[in-house]
Amino acid sequence: MSSDNKFDVVIIGGGPGGYVAAIRCAQLGLKTACVDEFTGKDNKASLGGTCLNVGCIPSKALLESSHHYEQLNHGLENHGIKVTGVKIDVPTMIKNKDDIVSRLTGGISGLFKANKVTSFHGRGKLLAGKQVEVTNSSNEILTLSAESVILATGSRPIDIPSAPVDNINIVDSTGALNFDKTPKKLGVIGAGVIGLELGSVWNRLGSDVTLLEAQDTFLPAADTKIAAEAKRQFKKQGLDIKMSARVTKATSKGKKVTVDYEDASGEHSIELDKLIVSVGRSPNTDNLFAPESPIELDERGFIEVDEIWQTSQPSVYAIGDLIRGPMLAHKASEEGVAVAEVIYGEEPEINYDVIPGVIYTNPEIAWVGETEQHLKSAGEKIKVGTFPFAASGRAQALGDTTGMVKIISSEETDQILGVHIIGPQASELIAEAVLAMEYSASSEDLALTVHAHPTLSEALHEAALAVDNRALHIPNR
Ligand code: FAD
Ligand code: NAD
User: How far apart are CA 405 and CA 436, in angstroms?
Assistant: First the structure.
């Protein structure tokens, strides 16, 4: 094998787990290659994985565009701004999203060059002896060898037999990022993060949106109070969320799709223009390693790793959506950095207790740490402080007063155990809570921290004060 194909580290997968691992390995002086098979709309290699190509970034681009549209239509009257004749040009909106994606994915190629990461476009497979076979789109095969291999191939949408994706009328999240016009009637199977975000995009642009959710609890991972407020707001916006709904059959015919489902009120059939299937994602492990490989999967198909992200095969690591934990880009990239440092010989740690979650709907929902219901069921003694954005001067000025900040701390030590926000800029506000929890702060610490006035972050300050019934701008209990 030529020395060109021998590396210290080969990474399979160029998403936020893999590309970040590659950059960090190269920064540490390791000879690094990254193999990624994603092909962009221009039929060329496009680094960045699900996140940059068909996930976080394009969905947020469409959420932003549709938010502007909705604000111009309905959000500015109170400011005395009257706008008429607002039109949405869907192909231009999609092109803007695609341009953002190509700028950012091109940016990763640039970073690879700057850091001297060797990039291979093709499908990677781990063979015996830490060799990695790369098959390109012309079926040409190249074999690389490595001291260490990082598996970072991410995840893909789960299919359900009752609603097979045809990419015409029945689509997954990728198809839902690429409609050429606003569907009049849109169905979404699964009222989880993707269903709510992408359902919101098209609802804002004029679709009648029905979400069919199998479970009877809405957003079970969120704090109950926040989930209830979210459901109320989404209903007000016109999202028709049907709980305990079981889709029995979705049939695509011509330009329509008929969905049969059952819920507590009986059997129903609805006719839609498009149907999005967003019922979760599963790890990409198919044909990733030879069947005789010692790498083990857990019962849900995730690769088993130890505390240093090492699989059951020595010097082979796995990170991101391929392994346990929340399927989030920032979790994948933290693991990317950490595993690079492990390979270099360091002992990095990730504090999995303080990984924030954000849903980029309007209102935004963000949280970190434990929920009240979980702490109570575990028998923890807690204190809770909440502060509504309606009492925030800045939120009033914004004309966006929905929601609240809720802080939960230990009754005994006052250490913050969870922070839950629904409302304007929740995605940005949560960073303060993450930092506070990373440093094991108490609600007293947050209460003692000076917050600029008038800002939305004052709501965090007031919620911290409310933990001990001393909020200043709301009556205390
Ligand atoms: P991925 O990003 O999936 O990257 C894996 C890469 O490996 C891909 O390029 C894939 O093509 C490639 N690959 C797979 N198999 C092979 C192989 N055998 N050989 C070579 N290459 C291979 N998370 C957030 O934190 N915030 C958000 O706002 C957010 N929004 C999302 C919106 C949508 C619509 C979706 C679908 C996901 C969203 N996510 C979000 C989740 C986030 O995208 C993932 O958690 C994250 O991308 C996982 O990173 P990863 O590196 O593990 O894998
Ligand atoms: P999800 O787990 O958030 O939601 C899936 C929903 O579908 C759940 O509520 C589930 O009960 C429901 N469901 C499952 N099977 C069903 C069925 N047969 N019929 C009806 N409902 C069914 O998954 P998702 O929305 O597909 O997103 C996948 C992953 O991507 C998530 O883990 C999430 O972390 C990540 N993501 C994150 C963000 C973000 O951070 N803002 C955005 C999008 C996606």
Answer: 15
**Three-state DSSP state, 95:** helix
Atom of ligand 2 nearest to the CA of 359: 41
Q: In angstroms, what CA-CA distances link 459 with 94, 292, 296, 390?
A: 35, 56, 46, 10
Mutate to test the pocket of ligand 2, among 279, 365, 367 (most ligand atoms within 8 A of CB): 279
Domain annotation for the chain: domains and CATH numbers: 3-157+282-350 (3.50.50.60), 170-276 (3.50.50.60), 355-466 (3.30.390.30)
* Phi-psi map region of 130: left, alpha, beta (phi>0 left; psi -120 to 50 alpha): left
Average pLDDT, the chain: 97
* Confidence at residue 204, expressed as pLDDT on a 0 to 100 scale: 98
Place of tokens 């949280």: 367
Cβ–ligand 1 distance for 386 under 6 Å, the answer no
> Is 461 assigned a catalytic role?
no
Token pair, residue 241, equals 């969320």
Distance (Å) from CA 278 to ligand 2 centroid: 6
**Cα–Cα distance, 297 to 299 (Å, whole number):** 7
Burial class (CB within 10 angstroms; exposed 0-12, middle 13-18, buried 19+) of 214 = middle
* pLDDT-based confidence at residue 75 (cuts at 50, 70, 90): confident
The percent of residues above 70 in pLDDT, for the chain, comes to 100
What is the reported pLDDT for 1? 67
| Ligand 2 centre distance from Cα of residue 280 (Å) | 4
Q: How far apart are CA 158 and CA 163, in angstroms?
A: 11
Q: 4 falls in which pLDDT band (50, 70, 90)?
A: confident
Q: pTM score, two decimals?
A: 0.98
pLDDT at 262 over 80: yes
Angle separating helix axes 90-115 and 56-70, nearest 10 degrees: 140
Shortest-distance ligand to the CA of residue 192? 2
